[in-house]
Amino acid sequence: MKNLFVLYTGGTIGMLQTAEGLAPAGGFEARMREQLDARGVALDWRFEELLPLIDSANMRQVNWLAMRDAIVTAVEAGCDGVLLLHGTDTLAYSAAALGFLLLGLPVPVVLTGAMLPAGSEGGDAWPNLLGAVEALRQGVAPGVHLYFNGQLLHGARASKLRSEAFDAFAELPRPREAKRAGNLPAGLDYRTPRQPVNLAVLPLFPGIEAGHVRGLLGSGVKGLILECYGSGTGPADDLALLEALREAHGRGVVLVATSQCPAGHVQAGVYAAGSQLMATGLVPAGGMTREAALGKLFALLGAGLAQEEVEHWFALDLCGEMAD
Question: Keywords for this entry (predicted)?
Fold first, then answer.
């Protein structure tokens, strides 16, 4: 790597104390440059603040699209590596979404952040940032990655598991047995502009009612991620709930099924309860995480694909999210 692009979006890593508490702050380029110079890191790099800087709890699809645009512009201008600084609350969501928004990008993108602001005694901000830079210098494969606490993780497999510890992120041991996609059509690579999409995630729970599902599906959603029990089961004896899903699918809503289990894997046909649920039109997400399923559905629907096309590509592994 000879020409690094650093994109700073906000988050705890660059926050400063205000009267209302920690808040995103500008001026991080000078602080980063001081750290690199102090360690004698010889590197050509360019820094950009993605305004407005945000706490990642406020992350939205438009922010993903702005990140994608800034990264593509930098790559087309000649950068050969990207470091994206991001808050931790939605870091795994953004890593997954960018993995699908940047399919085919010829350079590596590494996201990192921190549990404590840069400058905190004993904090993790500089170790994470400098570790990510060193990983890029040594060589990282093209694609989207997440670096945290000394580990380089797959961007579409990582999840935040802890709210305070420095080892907050990990790749969950979910089975990955899907078929890999062949050559992607031009309309799905990193050059493809996207639009925001109305999406929803709904976990199943004992006592869920058809009215809950109908209310959500009636809100104009274009895609629904249904977080099922175990290997993809749900209340198959609730005919009204099944009919609500079937009707939504019939009018073009894309329905996908993930597992609520941390090491879960949706498999159609294992249980009768799961088979009846899948028969409503749900596409099994295999071992995908919630973050990956949401990012993938956004990238596919946001590209303007029809329901049948979205379902086809969703069921295939695109960047390592479903297959080893």
Answer: Hydrolase
